[in-house]
Amino acid sequence: MESNFIDYVKIYCRSGKGGRGSMHLHHAKYNYNGGPDGGDGGRGGHVFLRGNHNFWTLLHLRYDRHVFAGHGGNGGKNCSTGSDGEDKYIDVPCGTVAYDADTGKYLCDITEDGQVVMLLRGGRGGLGNYQFRSSTNQAPRFAQPGEPMQELNVVLELKLLADVGLVGFPNAGKSTLLSALSSARPKIADYPFTTLEPSLGIVAYREGRSFVMADIPGIIEGAAEGRGLGLRFLRHIERNSLLLFMVPGDSDNIRREYEVLLGELERYNPQMLEKHRVLAVTKSDLLDDELIEMLRAELPDDIPAVFISSVTGKGVDVLKDMLWAELNSESNKLQSVSEGGSLVHRDREVQRFASDFADWTDDYAEEAEEDDVEDLEEYELEDLEG
Question: Does the reported pTM lie above 0.70?
Answer without folding.
Answer: yes
